[in-house]
Amino acid sequence: QVQLQESGGGSVQSGGSLKLSCAASGDTRCMAWFRQAPGKEREWVANIYSLRSFTYYADYASPVKGRFTTSRDSAKNTLYLEMNSLKPEDTALYYCAADQRYGCSRAAADFAYWGQGTQVTVSS
């Protein structure tokens, strides 16, 4: 069983920055960030996976590419999402997700473990 705990959400003005953290207990192969805005479906944001020891590869959704960076500290078993140049359309509840299977999906249904979410609000 893997438990995930997000932190770092908050309110910021357009153009500002926030850094989210997700502390994990247990081993995971793929970790990801999703977000869900009111009235919208949960949306994949980024994922990160390892093909070799201590080498991680990240992938990003088009709306956040170039503005968001995800990273993973294996020693702390913590996932991060650094968000820069934030826009009002980035406002959402951000979730950390993880799975222990090989491969790293962009589909929420493929992730077995989820955090409780942390709110990010960007005002114009």
Topology summary:
Elements: E1 3-7, E2 10-13, E3 18-25, E4 30-36, E5 43-52, E6 55-60, E7 68-73, E8 78-83, E9 92-99, E10 113-114, E11 118-123
Please give a handful of descriptors for the protein shown:
124 residues; mainly beta; globular
Overview of this protein structure:
- The structure is a single chain.
- With 124 residues, the protein is mostly beta strands.
- 0% of the residues lie in helices and 55% in strands.
- It is built from no helices and eleven strands.
- The strands form two sheets. Strands 2, 4, 5, 6, 9, 10 and 11 form a seven-stranded mixed sheet that branches. A four-stranded antiparallel sheet has the order 1-3-8-7, with no helix packed on it.
- A hairpin with a 2-residue loop joins strand 5 (43-52) and strand 6.
- It is globular.
- The model has no long low-confidence stretch (mean pLDDT 94).
What percentage of residues falls in helices of 4 or more residues? Answer: under 10%
- Roughly how many Å apart are the termini? 40 Å
Order of helices and strands: EEEEEEEEEEE
Overall pLDDT, averaged? 94
Oligomer description:
single chain
